[in-house]
Amino acid sequence: MKKTIVLPLIIALLALTAWVFYDPAPKPNPKPFDVQKAEDFDYVFDLIKQEYPLLQAQKNATGYDFVADYAKHKAHIMQAKNPTEFFFLLNDVLAKLDNEHTHMMTKADVQYAIGIYSQSKHDDYRWQIYTHLTRDKRLQQAYATEIGITKSQEEQARREKIAKIDAQIAVPANVQMFDVVPNQVGYLSVRELTHLSLLDTDERHAVMRYLQKIKHYPALIVDIRTNTGGDTRYWTQFLLPAITARPLSLDLYSFFKKGTQMDAYKATRPTMTDIDRTQVAKALPVSADLARILDTFAYQEIQPLRVDMDPNGIGFGGKIYLLVDTDVYSSAETLAIFAKYTKFATLVGTPTRGDGVGTDPMIAILPNTHFAVRYAKQLGIAPDGTINAIVGTQPDVLVANPPNFTLPTDVNVAKNDPVIQRAVGLALSSH
């Protein structure tokens, strides 16, 4: 498929430029490695203890107390014999938090952040992260090798790539579109919410052509099963404006703890204020458990999500069904919340994985090894008063995926998908 490559190329060059032009030999850290790794662990642990928003929520939900295991965590990372082992062992510790926005950043993660955040406004916290990542010579040295992938994994990936080329297996398109019931029920699946600046022009045109075709159908199924997120703007500025027949809006509440990183973040966010408990109580159902959790938070922010009608859109007047499952996460989860609470669509499937209320996670650089760590920074609350990262979003109609599920690429596969067929049944019964 032909792609619009100019902007992605610029992004790649920015990242490459930042990566290549650095002093190849910063002065070595004079501290013994045991001291370096102990200090870096304490730095990360203190960040999590002070600023990570989900500690108490995780403890309430599962009984696991991450902070209480400090000694066990530290003993684990102190086994590291070199920085690479330290990287992986510290990532093991962070995995105990069971949050995919919280992890050690690989070289690929860092380069992607540099490319995307280079487009940020200079008064935005993402620009500050971009400058920290590009100006830290020790970080560039730390990531001079492929941290995040072992030699055996690299060899396996190489074998798989060769096998894929030899077999000429086509990578599935990001979107699939076809009628599941001719001239009555349209189907559109989206695998990934591509960053808006990287969105394939052909994909835009293909989606718009199909939407024009089904403009007067009684129903449309939008399938985001397996979608783990990406860029919220994919659906706020492209997909939903092309479909909706009315403007849509939803305010989502997030809460932040006090801390060095969070206070610096707040300085870039005029919409971030001290918690107003009266306002919160009016906007959200606050349970006793949630009230106790919020007692440990200092700041709040309202995230206004708005979707306007695209003048070239279809203003769809039929029923819309959004298919979800346990893989739906991050900005795809935000779409699930938005669709449910604005009544843009009826949700069909299984509960989502959550963590869709808020903005990009925070990134910090470790003081000795200069690896980067990414962590969730805000407690996002769904309109029903639940902690979204813990509970996810419940579908309106509960139906499980079939065994060995993959997204269908044609109507024949869709006929054997119980989630799609349940949505079809709902569509035809309401027509």
Q: In terms of structural class, how would the helical and strand content be classed?
A: alpha/beta
Oligomer category: single chain
Q: How many distinct helices?
A: 18
Q: Report the helical percentage.
A: 40-55%
Number of strands: 13
**Basic shape:** globular
Query: If strands are numbered along the chain, what order do they take across the biggest sheet?
Result: 2-3-4-8-9-13
- Tell me the Rg in angstroms: 23 Å
Ordered list of secondary-structure elements with their pairings:
Elements: H1 6-20, H2 33-51, H3 55-62, H4 70-77, H5 83-95, E1 103-104, H6 107-117, H7 125-135, H8 137-142, H9 151-167, E2 175-181, E3 185-190, H10 201-213, E4 219-223, H11 233-243, E5 248-256, H12 260-266, E6 272-274, H13 277-283, H14 288-294, E7 299-307, E8 319-324, H15 330-341, E9 346-349, E10 362-365, E11 372-375, E12 379-381, H16 388-391, E13 397-398, H17 411-414, H18 418-430
Parallel strand pairs: 3-4, 4-8, 8-9, 9-13
Antiparallel strand pairs: 1-11, 2-3, 5-7, 5-12, 6-7, 10-11
Helix pairs in contact: 1-6, 6-7, 10-11
Describe this structure in words.
The protein is an alpha/beta fold. It is built from 18 helices and 13 strands. It has helices spanning about 5-20, 35-50, 55-60, 70-75, 85-95, 105-115, 125-135, 135-140, 150-165, 200-215, 235-245, 260-265, 275-285, 290-295, 330-340, 390, 410-415, 420-430; strands spanning about 105, 175-180, 185-190, 220-225, 250-255, 270-275, 300-305, 320-325, 345-350, 360-365, 370-375, 380, 395-400. A six-stranded mixed beta sheet has the order 2-3-4-8-9-13, sandwiched between helices. A hairpin with a 6-residue loop joins strand 10 and strand 11 (about 370-375). Helix 1 crosses helix 6 (about 105-115), helix 6 packs across helix 7 and helix 10 (about 200-215) runs parallel beside helix 11. It is globular and about 70 Å long. About 40% of the residues are buried.
